[in-house]
């Protein structure tokens, strides 16, 4: 037996014992936060939005490409099934943008079919260089989603953020939206995001964070904790690059100790177990993949030592 096999077996025994003990002592609590899970979904990992103390399931849903299906009736029906599985698995936050083609319209179509408008957490964006167009985009999003107000409005990729944050702050003060935020991706413009976080009152930021892309750990995540800002993690799988990296590779044996049955759950649990990450937003058009993703909300979560060993395992692949 090689070194990594021995270590995996040792860790599996250690974390299985710890998880079993925790399940007897705290059956209705998240192993990560120690906070009660919603009664409708015992054991569901939720995070607290710092600015409101509202609970948020730690896995949401992205809609880039996957919900941009236009008027295709077959593709739309598939989106209805995907969203139904998302809700069934305990999800709430749905992230979109005017940049994503027909995605907002398709989300609204699905919500109407499922009659679940009250359950979801709507999160979309302003994506335009013009302030006046930003206001119109907010109204367009409300119409397309079929809701009276969008819960979270974000400035997409910091585009004209000064003008749009001014607009969003006004709309929030008027009660037309509940939360405001800014987004980036691919590790871009982190210094600028940091300055905005220091200078403005934000409820959310959105950035890229996954088991490979961890630049945000150095400054942005600690600052979010300090300022009381919730963090949405996009690109949890680097699109498909992480799956290509582990293609044909078996999960580490220790993954069973945190309830991982596939690589998607392994990658997601690494993200949502970080104490400063509020929600990860994987996107998929496959029903089985959505069910796999949502299963990562339950079961034991890796602690800091386990996370370090997950990083080591990925480096060894």
From TrEMBL:
<keyword id="KW-1133">Transmembrane helix</keyword>
<keyword id="KW-0812">Transmembrane</keyword>
<keyword id="KW-0472">Membrane</keyword>
<dbReference type="InterPro" id="IPR036812">
    <property type="entry name" value="NAD(P)_OxRdtase_dom_sf"/>
</dbReference>
<protein>
    <submittedName>
        <fullName>Aldo/keto reductase</fullName>
    </submittedName>
</protein>
<dbReference type="Pfam" id="PF00248">
    <property type="entry name" value="Aldo_ket_red"/>
</dbReference>
<feature type="transmembrane region" description="Helical">
    <location>
        <begin position="12"/>
        <end position="32"/>
    </location>
</feature>
<feature type="domain" description="NADP-dependent oxidoreductase">
    <location>
        <begin position="59"/>
        <end position="307"/>
    </location>
</feature>
<dbReference type="InterPro" id="IPR023210">
    <property type="entry name" value="NADP_OxRdtase_dom"/>
</dbReference>
């Amino acid at each position: 037996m090689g070194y990594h096999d021995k270590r995996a077996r040792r860790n599996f025994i250690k974390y299985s014992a710890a998880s079993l003990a925790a399940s007897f002592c705290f059956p209705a609590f998240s192993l990560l936060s120690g906070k009660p899970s919603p009664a409708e979904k015992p054991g569901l990992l939720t995070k607290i939005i710092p600015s409101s103390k509202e609970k948020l399931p730690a896995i949401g849903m992205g809609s880039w490409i996957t919900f941009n299906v236009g008027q295709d009736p077959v593709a739309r029906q598939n989106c209805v099934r995907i969203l139904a599985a998302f809700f069934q698995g305990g999800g709430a936050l749905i992230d979109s943008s005017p940049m994503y083609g027909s995605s907002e319209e398709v989300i609204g179509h699905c919500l109407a079919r499922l009659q679940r408008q009250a359950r979801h957490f709507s999160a979309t964006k302003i994506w335009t260089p013009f302030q006046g167009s930003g206001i119109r985009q907010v109204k367009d999003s409300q119409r397309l989603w079929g809701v009276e107000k969008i819960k979270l409005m974000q400035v997409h990729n910091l585009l004209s953020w000064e003008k749009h944050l001014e607009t969003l702050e006004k709309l929030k003060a008027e009660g037309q939206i509940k939360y405001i935020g800014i987004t980036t991706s691919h590790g871009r413009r982190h210094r600028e995001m940091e300055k905005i976080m220091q200078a403005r009152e934000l409820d959310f930021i959105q950035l890229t964070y996954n088991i490979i892309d961890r630049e945000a750990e150095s400054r942005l995540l600690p600052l979010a904790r300090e300022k009381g800002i919730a963090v949405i993690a996009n690109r949890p799988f680097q699109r498909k690059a992480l799956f290509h990296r582990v293609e044909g590779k078996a999960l580490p044996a220790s993954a069973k100790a945190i309830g991982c049955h596939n690589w998607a759950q392994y990658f997601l649990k690494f993200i949502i177990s970080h104490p400063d990450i509020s929600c990860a937003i994987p996107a998929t058009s496959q029903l089985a993949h959505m069910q796999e993703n949502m299963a990562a909300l339950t079961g034991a979560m890796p602690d800091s030592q386990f996370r370090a060993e997950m990083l080591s395992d990925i480096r060894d692949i």
